[in-house]
Design goal:
Blueprint (H helix, E strand, L loop, with lengths): L11 H27 L2 H27 L11 H31 L9 E2 L3 E2 L12 H37 L3 H5 L11
Antiparallel strand pairs: 1-2
């Protein structure tokens, strides 16, 4: 498998980032639900560390996407399906970047940030976003940001379901290689005539 993308498929770099981020997001869904019910301080720290890691990996993936464009979609796809694919991918980028940023903003605005510091993987303290710790009515702003964070996180459920269903549709219905480009161990599809 190539390091970079080709016209026939994704390279190992794109595939690895895709699956590392996907597994991290799935774990974050579970962790977010767990930590709010258990009120576990260590889980909150893990959630913040993983969120910042997802942010960094997503920014890297976006940069790589501009440098090394993805392979073209199959020619048989109608315009509306191509548009849907592009919109859903850009929505994923927006969420993969927006969710961690909204969480970081929420923590930065929270009065708790005065005495509860965020340590990323125990290695370094995450600085607060500028100006948010100096705002009046920080608790109300942090609560609003928590609502935004939750809304964005909830929208991932819909987008993930759509993404998985579209990949399965391409593999089993259209019998094209959209899915095998991200799962290179699957045998390539042969379109029946």
């Amino acid at each position: 498998m190539r390091l970079t993308n080709s016209k026939d498929g994704f390279g190992i770099l794109a595939v690895t980032l895709h699956w590392v981020i996907a597994v991290a997001i799935l774990y974050m869904i579970w962790l977010g639900n767990y930590m709010t019910k258990a009120e576990d301080y260590a889980a909150y720290q893990l959630h913040k560390s993983l969120g910042i890691t997802i942010l960094a990996l997503s920014l890297l993936r976006l940069l790589i996407r501009f440098i090394d464009p993805p392979p073209p979609l199959p020619e048989h796809m109608p315009w509306w399906e191509r548009l849907g694919a592009h919109l859903s991918h850009w929505a994923f980028y927006a969420l993969m970047i927006g969710i961690p940023l909204s969480g970081w903003a929420m923590v930065s605005a929270s009065p708790n940030s005065d005495f509860v510091k965020t340590r990323i993987w125990g290695w370094f303290e995450l600085p607060l976003l500028p100006s948010l710790p100096t705002l009046a009515n920080r608790e109300a702003i942090s609560d609003r940001l928590e609502d935004v964070h939750g809304l964005l996180a909830t929208s991932v459920y819909f987008l993930l379901a759509l993404h998985v269903l579209a990949a399965l549709k391409h593999h089993f219905w259209d019998r094209d290689n959209v899915l095998t480009r991200m799962l290179p161990f699957l045998p390539k599809q042969r379109k029946s005539s």
